Amino acid sequence: MRIGVVGADVPRQVVLACGAVPVRILGSWTGAVSQEATELLGAADAVAARVLDEILSGDHDELAGLVVCNDSMADLRVYYVLRILDERGRVPFPVHLLDAPRGGGAHRRRFVSHQYERLAAFVSGVTGQQVDATSLAEAAAREAKLGQALEAVQGRRRERVLSGTTALTAYRAAAQLSPEDAWERIGELVRSAAEPVELDEPAELAGARVPVYLTGSSHPDATVYAALEAAGAVVVGEDHDAGDAAWIGDAVNAATLEEACAQLADRHTARPPAAARSLSSERTEHLLAETERCGAAGVVALVRDLDDGPVWDLAEYRPALASRDLWLAEQLRVPAGGVQDATAGIIRALQRNVNRKDAL
Amino acid sequence: MTEPRTPAQPRTPQAPAGQRLRSAVAATRHQKEWFQTVRQRAAAGEPIALVNADAPHEVFRALDIPYVVTQWWSSIIAAKQAGPASMDRLAAGGLPDFSLQYDAMPLGEQDLPAEDRPWGGLPAPRFAVAERSGDVTAKIFEQWGNRPGTETFLLSRTGADPVPDRWWELVPHQWEQAFGTERLDLLEGEIQDLIAWLEERTGRTMDYGRLAEIMALGNEQAEWNRRTRDLIATTRPTPVLVNDTMPAVMAPQWQRGTQWAVDAARSLYEETAERVDRQVAVCPGERKRLMWVGRGLWSDLGLYTRFQEEFGAVFVWSMYLAIAADGYLRYGDDPVRALAARFVGITDQLYVPPWSSQWYVKEALTHGVDGVVHLVADDTPGSGFITEALEAEGIPVLEIRANNADQRSSSAARIPERIAEFIRRRV
């Protein structure tokens, strides 16, 4: 049984222990946004509108239920709209809100822990399977094995054997397939990783293999990664929740659901800071650590229009990155249909930065 | 639904042209004078606070920490034409000038030249406190904490779940049912943390008896607003203009928990009742009663009276008095938990469907409106559900998509022309 997930806050072990597979609905960079979705959501990130369009057009009707995370204003709006439409029979499955505020502290941890228990009740209600020590342990083992596969991806990526495009594909498989199917798929991706990335002709950055780190909006698909890497860059890491910051592969040892939820709520506080829910200082600290870990030469910030969280981080990013001699290429307020132009702009900026470095 | 209250006498005197409600004028004047006392206290070395509209102001009142509400201060900055310059200062500091401007504008105002600062400017706050609403508010308030002498405290903003029907009947006493125990537990705990945080920094001690008194004053104020709202709902023709009740309600709202605010709310009621007794009509030939759903059209407040002469159409409702009547009442023995209940879902009541649509329908029916102009907010979800619910009750709705504070946007939307056409064809 498959449970759809909008957003990045779901503790997958809980869903697995309830007998379901969490399937992340990511949306896409491209494609039309319907007038209905625009009017229902108001001014919101186009990716959220595309997610809503997918759901309302029946693309996910095979799901047994849907969990929507309050991990951004756009996703919360998706929940509010779907709650109404669900009552009207417009959605063929029950819809549930998972609300896991960031910021840590005893009160938030307790609230989040209760939210995970409610999540389990929702999924169990759909599957008919209650959580017990055995199902928690089995789910932990399945999730941990998937986590090991993703660690292998990260290792190959650090060795520059695996492209960012392939890594993002691996994360997508992990987020959308059963742990076993994802494990198989990721294995194939890692094994085929020795194949060189094909470059566009003329590849402006060919030979440079500039290692770049991605920040800004999340990347629901590999559109931007593929374009950057075709132009000669290598995406060595990212801080968005469809990539390195995805919460996949994490599991706890617990005898009861309450114990598991409390431990997972602790883990939630240790997750990478999110653009829409964390402070700029936290994000900057994380960015500096990750660019160093990944050996990035610079940072690309691509931010969609109406996804305002990331733009507030840039004021701290700019001096912090400059102090590390890292350049920052920005494309802000990227319109719903503007990803190609924005990516082209980034590639031109990369070229300028590479040339400047060469001249130094 | 209550029955309309109609005057016994056939003759209805018109409110003298241009004569505003005394309570509106007094409230606006008081707010300006009060702001200067805040400046004086800050100049004398007292800590002051900048707080968002959805933060638990009563904590600051009880600790005698003067506070200024971000959105109110932004409205003053904008009214004094200092908005663009303030946003320019933000941009100069590398911050976005296009994102949540009404929350961000006071940050830029801090850096304006002294002579350009409205009313002398907001003194640097010692504390900046907000809920983590949306994706950006926390980051804006984090910026305040980066300024010398200011520290930031952030509270959680949880999603509106559950949403039991008819929230306005539940929230005064049955707020546990309205908002859910877990949401309340979280905010109550965080308010306790905020109190401890402020006590540590000011050396003051919270007097919980005083906090209970402040909560009681807030409830008393809301009860007066209820009486005023109910009186207007049942009076034909309508005795007051919505562009008068807006300032008469909102200035005291930011002074909530004081005797002055209670007295201001009572004055508004008494002045309205006096007009009803004298059978004053703001539109003597009233034939159509209109409701304005959405934020006030600050860029063109004259719009609200523009259809009286030609159509006998008068706006009898805006959300400002109505939410002051229904949105803030919270009774309970534990003042901290009641305070958490006041704020945990304050914006949900107005903006989250189905709560929003249910409430607007209730208000439309009790006010006996003949038509609704719905200024659709693009920063809230499901506006269409509001229109749909009103139309389902047989109330025609005109949807307008425009920015309420931006005159260019409202001009482009041809609002007056479209309302006139709407009245002719559908009301």
UniProtKB/TrEMBL annotation, chain A:
Superkingdom to which the source organism belongs: Bacteria
InterPro entries for this protein: FldB/FldC_alpha/beta
Keywords tagged on the record: Iron, Iron-sulfur, Metal-binding
Family: Belongs to the FldB/FldC dehydratase alpha/beta subunit family.
The name this protein goes by in its record: 2-hydroxyacyl-CoA dehydratase
TrEMBL record, chain B:
Superkingdom classification of source: Bacteria
Pfam families: HGD-D
Family: Belongs to the FldB/FldC dehydratase alpha/beta subunit family.
Protein name, entry field: 2-hydroxyacyl-CoA dehydratase
Organism listed in the record: Citricoccus zhacaiensis
Source organism phylogeny: Bacteria, Bacillati, Actinomycetota, Actinomycetes, Micrococcales
